[in-house]
Amino acid sequence: MSWQHEDLVVRAVDYALSLGAKYAEARYHKVARSGVAARNGEFVGLEKGFKEGVAVRVLVDGALGFSSTDTLTWEGVKTAVD
């Protein structure tokens, strides 16, 4: 995890708590994926890549809320918290 991602998750928790959450957690995740496609016994394509994002979980008024985003900017993470 880079310092930019660490900053996003720390800011997300601080922001959620400032809005009144009794508990907040945020996680950055990055997953590698790959795939091969064939049609009628013939190779069609190969796919490789990464999927990453931030997930936020909060406790507000006794209810648990969850949201996530793959927009790794403060605006994207803030929207997930809101």
Report a brief summary of the structure.
Helices cover 29% and strands 52% of the residues. With 82 residues, the protein is α+β, with helices and mostly antiparallel strands. β2 and β3 (63-69) form a beta hairpin.
What does this entry look like structurally?
It comes from Thermofilum pendens. The chain has 82 residues and is α+β, with helices and mostly antiparallel strands. Helix content is 29%, strand content 52%. It contains 2 helices and 3 strands; from the N terminus they run αβββα. The protein has helices at 3-18, 74-81, and strands at residues 23-39, 42-60, 63-69. The chain has a 3-stranded antiparallel sheet. α1 (3-18) packs parallel to α2.
Q: Distance N terminus to C terminus? A: 24 Å
Give the strand tally: 3
Please trace the helix and strand order, writing H or E for each element: HEEEH
Percent of residues in helical segments? 25-40%
Please report which band the strand proportion falls in: under 5%, 5-15%, 15-25%, 25-35%, 35-45% or over 45%: over 45%
Can you tell me the residue ranges where pLDDT is under 50 for at least 5 consecutive residues? none
Spatial strand sequence of the major β-sheet: 1-2-3
Structurally, the number of domains stands at 1
SSE class: alpha+beta
How many helical elements?
A: 2
The Cα radius of gyration reads 17 Å
Whole-number mean pLDDT:
94
Inertia-based shape: elongated
Q: Mind summarizing the main beta sheet?
A: 3 strands, antiparallel
